[in-house]
Amino acid sequence: MNLASFVIGCTAAGGVMQIGLTLMGDLFPTAKGRITGIYYTASGLASFSIPVVTALISKTSVVNIMWFDVAIAVVGILCSLIVLLFYRKDVVPQPNNKDIILNKPEDVQTQSNFEIKEEY
């Protein structure tokens, strides 16, 4: 039972929702409450609407359900790539060589020899 719980926790959206919510919070830091509400509302709507849509599609052919799943996967991959491109540029700063200054403290040996210069 513990092994099954571990496998389900690691493979079946164990941390995917939390990672997505963290990314959304980083992209929109001034509206974290609103983003949390929108994120979990969309998740709840998808939990209801996807089975309804697949039931309607299954009346024509079960193969069409698989194509619907492929379409959802493609949309998810495209959204992930878009977020990755914008997230890397806007949120994760790339340090320049001029931002790292070599410090040589004479008195204190416990300090680091490097200091990151922060400019905002």
From TrEMBL:
Its main location: membrane. One of its GO terms (cellular component) is plasma membrane. The keyword Isomerase does not apply. It is found in: Cell membrane. GO terms for molecular function: transmembrane transporter activity. Coiled coil: none annotated. It is a multi-pass membrane protein. The chain crosses the membrane at residues 6-25, 37-58, 64-87. Pfam families: MFS_1. Keywords: Membrane, Transmembrane, Transmembrane helix. This is MFS transporter.
